[in-house]
Amino acid sequence: MFHFFLFPFSNELGAKTHMGDFQLHKLLGAGNFGRVYLAEQKQTRKKVAIKMIPREKVCDALAVRGVMREKEILELAKKKNHPFLIGLVTYFETQHDMCLAMDYASGGDLSSVMTRTLSIETSV
To answer: Which residues are in the Protein kinase domain (predicted)?
Structure first.
């Protein structure tokens, strides 16, 4: 099987990142493009959310552009310290997945938060 690499081997700090740098804890959610896990960066003990995108899901130019755009938005959110967007901590690839390690925000995804908020507002 041919394996392509979408991301460079090193992150922006020049250090090679890999799955062994993290301890996966639990599945936070799954969608059409992958799974998101709560993880802990072993060296810093920082909690992160790791989005694992199976390589087989990124099978055409449009999908590649989508993943790269998501990575760029997360990088920009981190660089600008955006108050409402999650930032990218690092990125790496495994044999089977492309991985985006992002800042972890407890409380669930935006859809879950909005559903809870709307149900509280309508019950009042």
So the answer is: 22-124
